[in-house]
Each structure stands twice: as C-alpha cells, then as structure tokens.
Amino acid sequence: MRPSSSTTTSGAESPSTLAERFNRLADALTASLGSLPALAASILLIVGWVLTGPVFRFSDTWQLFINTTTTIITFWMVFVIQNSANRSSKATQLKLDELIRSVKAARNDLITLDKAPEKELREREKEFERLAHGEIDEAEEAGA
Fold first, then answer.
1. Taking the alpha carbons of 33, 34, 40, 42 in that order, is the dihedral positive or negative?
2. Helix, strand or coil for residue 68?
3. pLDDT in tens, 11-23
4. Which of 26, 60, 75, 111: CA 20 to 30 A from 84?
5. Region at 58 (left for phi over 0; alpha for psi -120 to 50; beta for the rest)
6. Average of pLDDT values for 119-128?
7. Between the CA of residue 129 and those of 6, 22, 27, 38, 134, what are the distances in Å?
C-alpha cells in the first residue's frame, strides 16, 4: 500500500481555502445534525414552540416564527448535505476507479462509466445482470 501524497487527507493540515473550510463545516454539520441528540433537540424545539402558543395567543407572528425558522434551516441544510454527499460519492468513485485500474482482468473503460450516457449505463446494467444469471460467461463477455 502506498502512502498518500496529500497531507490534507490525513487531517494534519488545517484547511486554508474557503472551500476547504466549508467542506469541513459541512461534514461536521451533516454528522452532528444527523444524530439522535439533534433529533431530540428539534423535537424539544417544536414542543417548546407549541407550549408558547397560548402565551402568544397562537398569533400569526407565532406561526410565522416557526415557519420561517424551519424554512431557512432546511434551505441551508440542502446545500450542506449535498456538499457532503457529493464529496463522499466522489471519494467512493475514486476508490472504485483505483480498484478497477489495479485489477489486471478488469476493464479500464468502466472507470469513466459515471460520465457515460444513460443508454450506455442501461446496456452495461443488462450486461451485468446477464453475467449474474449465467446467461453469458466471463470469457464471452471479455471478448465483447
């Protein structure tokens, strides 16, 4: 196994660019807000809001507060979660690319399959289904 040439992946360096700081923040937020304590806190927030209803006479402002707050949080979290998901997906793809590249019998043209047109993806999916069901053997498939 080769050591990594990048020190940023080891966590040894602090992030230097705005994008790197955002990535770290997105990862931390995604991990913490996807936890049981975060769910419990959100439930407590809603229960607290409901309990204050009689104090504010269930006014429009009282309702607008929770609607606006949850909308803003949801809007921001879409970007945060998507950032983390994109980066995680890309890392997984790169790991798979490395495995394909390193296995001599593997077809290296599969490395760029994530950028292929939908038609080609469907064709490859059918091919692998036929392989899995024994409809074509690997020798026949390798010659194709």
1. positive
2. helix
3. 555 558 999 999 9
4. 111
5. left
6. 94
7. 38, 40, 35, 41, 9
Q: Where are the alpha helices (DSSP H) in the chain?
A: 18-33, 36-51, 60-102, 118-132, 138-143
Provide the CA 98 distance to its chain's centre, in angstroms. Answer: 20
* Separation of alpha carbons 119 and 123, rounded Å: 6
Count of positions (residues) in the chain: 144
∠11-14-18 over CA atoms, to 5°? 120
Distance (Å, whole) CA 25 – CA 11: 14
- Which pLDDT score is estimated for 3? 47
Q: How many angstroms separate the first and last alpha carbons of the chain? A: 32
**What local confidence, expressed as pLDDT, does residue 31 receive?**
94
pLDDT band at 136 (very low <50, low <70, confident <90, very high): confident
Average pLDDT over residues 92-107: 93
